[in-house]
Design goal:
Elements lengths: L3 H28 L17 H8 L1 H34 L5 H9 L6 H14 L6 H26 L3 H8 L4 H12 L1 H17 L2 H6 L7 H11 L4 H23 L2 H4 L4
Helix pairs in contact: 1-12, 2-12, 3-6, 3-9, 3-11, 6-9, 7-8, 9-12
């Protein structure tokens, strides 16, 4: 039996874990407002000059626009494919269904570095060049399992009899999907779009192998900059990326609820 004291201890432990997980990110955000010309914590003085400089650096702006473009395309493609796969896995029973489901979820169990290297070798064996298309393909693959998961949760939560009622009234399969199924699973689709966007925009492992100097995404640009410089500029760029991610997570919580996506409520 769980007592009140045990609940308080468990809550304190969970709060401590969350604090330790968020603390490094919080330090980066605080450091981005430093007035010094080198990274030191606690920061000496308060200034937004590094944010101003980051917005004036063309290489970072170009990489940010490229990352934004890649993330939008990858999230839309991954969500569209994930919706179709989720419909097939939830609505139909066929031989090999479990195997196919495990295959689509396989990228979640492979480290990003290993997956990026394997994808690079695979594309090279087929003569596919490292370019923006290759980066988008890699991002779609890593985002697809999340899209399938989110849409699957939405499909399981809806009442299938509504679709049968629409069919009995003479609606075609396309009309049923467009006017009945899609509106009911819209929260899962929106969550898939946002999560896929975050994964694509923040990915560095896959992009590091597939990007070129002309198609360098923002995370790769940050990685290269850290290797050659040691100033707070990169903390401001990283803080902006973190803020974008938090805004996207807030959109998911408003539309569906993060806990519900993973079956927690």
């Amino acid at each position: 039996m769980i007592t009140a004291a045990m609940r308080r201890c468990l809550g304190a432990y969970a709060a401590l874990v969350c604090l330790l997980a968020v603390l490094p990110v919080l330090i980066i955000v605080i450091e981005s407002f430093t007035a010094s010309d080198y990274v030191v914590f606690p920061p000496s003085g308060f200034s937004v000059k590094w944010y101003v400089e980051s917005l004036q650096r063309e290489e970072f702006l170009d990489s940010a626009l490229l990352s934004l473009w890649v993330a939008v395309i990858a999230s839309v493609v991954a969500t569209a494919l994930g919706t179709l796969v989720a419909l097939a896995l939830v609505r139909f029973r066929f031989p090999g269904r479990r195997v196919l489901q495990s295959l689509f979820m396989a990228p979640l169990s492979v480290p990003g570095i290993i997956f990026g290297l394997a994808l690079l070798q695979f594309l090279a064996s087929w003569g596919v060049a490292r370019d923006m298309t290759a980066v988008i393909v890699g991002h779609v693959i890593i985002a697809l399992p999340f899209a399938i998961r989110f849409v699957t949760v939405a499909l399981i939560g809806m009442v299938a009899n509504v679709e049968l009622a629409a069919q009995s009234l003479g609606a075609s399969p396309w009309v049923v999907f467009r006017r009945v199924t899609l509106p009911l699973i819209r929260p899962g689709v929106v969550a898939s779009l946002v999560f896929a966007f975050i994964l694509s925009f923040d990915d560095v492992a896959v992009s590091l192998f597939l990007a070129t100097p002309g198609t360098m995404t923002l995370p790769v640009r940050i990685y290269v900059y850290i290797d050659q410089n040691y100033d707070p500029l990169i903390t401001a760029v990283s803080a902006i990326v973190v803020m974008v991610a938090f805004l996207a997570l807030g959109a998911i919580e408003r539309t569906l609820g993060i806990g519900r996506l993973f079956g927690l409520r």
